[in-house]
Amino acid sequence: MSKITTELLLERAVPRSTRLRKIETLNLSKLQLKTGDLDPRLFSRLRHLQKLDLSDNLLDKFPNSLTLPDLRVLNCNNNKLEDVTALKQFPLLEELTYENNVYLTLNDDYKVMFLLQNLRLLNGKDITKLANHVRRVNSRKLTSKVTAHWEKFFRDQLPEKYTAEQVKSIKKKFLKSVQTNVVYGPSSLSEFTRWRVKMIAEELLACSLGLDLGTDPESEEMMDENEEESTESPREAAGDVDQVGDFSSYVTVTPSKRKRNHSKPGSGNKRSKTQANTKEEAEDVSAEPLHFLQCHSKGNSREDFKTQLWSCVFEPLLDCGARKDPIMSSSRTVATCGGESVCLIDCETGTVLKKYKVATEEFFSVAWTTLTMVISDSRKKSHNILAAAGRRGIVKLIHVAADFCYGEIKAHKKPIATVCFSPTRETHLFTASYDKRIALWDIGIPDCDYNFKASQLLVLEALSIPLRIALVPTCPDQYLLAGCEGGCFAWNIKLDKEQKSRPFEAIFQFPDEDGGMTTSHRVDGLAFLNDDVIVSKSSKPGCIYLWSWSRSFDTKGKGCQRTISAVILAELEWSPTDLSYLTLSTCPAKDYVFCGDEKGSVWMYNLSNYTTAWTSAKGKRSDRRIPPTQILKWPELRDNGEQLTEVLINNVVSDPTFTYLVVLTSVNITAIWKKS
Asked: Where is the Leucine-rich repeat and WD repeat-containing protein 1 LRR domain positioned along the sequence (predicted)?
């Protein structure tokens, strides 16, 4: 029988308590405790515990699932600890002591400095400066050496088309070779160096090359496990931690029927004869569901079907060979965000390559840019940088290849709804906030020590909260469109103007339900289908508008805050729901529009037979609503025998070649479909 009981915990609380969940300080020293005495089920009820004293016991390790989400101070002096890696489950830890554990060495000190991003005091000493060196400089040097070793000795051994057996063989040889030959720092830290080299090497194989390492998600350690769900809104959280590069556990929910989707175009919608005979219906896109992932769970809980997923964007390809997939013509890695985490997913294998987590955040938007950074010996190299933002109004900047969040920008005092980078100026980032402002930032380029300087270049004043933003493809340095809670607006963003804070230049009006025109409506979906055609929703339920930028907006017109009628080219038939924030996206290379609905379905529109006519100066509006080319129905997903119901599709995004379709839901499921 365990020595630790509820009564003991209440008695040893400081001060004594009547409820486990109210305990903030707990003294369990000098109780002759062994590892088996630390019952995870009992400790999981100590949700607000911040200080824990386990000194003078007989502990040889920590259980991996000792859920203490708010632990800040831990004393493990005078035990028999042999390993410290399980301490990574306490990401908010600031003070740690484990003196007089005879099996622990200097290598273990370095491991905890790397694993615990918030750690300030170790065995009574301030390790802030050394820890930053370990996390930044040391990691950068080792990553450079590991990459060089792969490029020189192993990259050419991998054939263009490889089998699983070949991958397994080369992985084994590479891991053995790299741990033997990559040397850095004093010999006293050789164990730590081998530990980090193996970690970096595995991540290089998994992320940079897109190889499935065959890891079993069931066996991997969780950052937090089975954290009790709060009855508060999903925007309420506690604690704060940044973690990059963890191959965190995730759940794959399998559909009860995994058949290819051959649903007929626009199934479930009645059509007139004219609509039924349109040419676009000849194409029936066969799409196969590949993966259903539950990788954004709060505290990694497998019971979390509440976290909302909001944004996803495919990683751009780099020119360097190590990043380029030899099979795919475009990137198959996608960044997704929702709840407290951002994930990088390989769409083909369903592998969660990396997970970045901030316990007090709810991420709403992610965006990629490619920066040319100076590396060692003054050489320059292109790297992909991911920006992530959300409820806290802070933009996190992540150097993905280095597994490092190198900085943040406190952009707004209210939540950030969406972010996007300029396609022509790689350091220019737009942030749209609940403070009714859109800000333009120059995020700068970090130096070899990740020092950078961000500056605000412009503030665009909106009349209501901006929800979606889009730069005009033909003049991305001059005009920006925003879909807002109160309408659709355009701003002049040209930087040669002296005015730093600017009002909108135009507001667009659309047909209303009574046949008139209105500017007052929520626009929660906005994207360009090509250089001229804009797709937006939802001025009224059941309809998505396609309209012309060039014919609606006269760039030579003078005056500010003009009211302009949008020149409508067509309407797309869509769900009659009045639910908001089910956004749309486009695949310009294939002339496709995607939009999810309130029933878990994805509406797909192939508009290639219309775009030519729309580009004509005399192009007329389509008389009838254009039906979807196809509707992908949500499959029957079951978790522990229970079917998931009431699935909202918050976002749908395809890669540039429309090979993969990533679907984000309201039930913490990321669905990945593949066009076959």
From this structure: 7-200
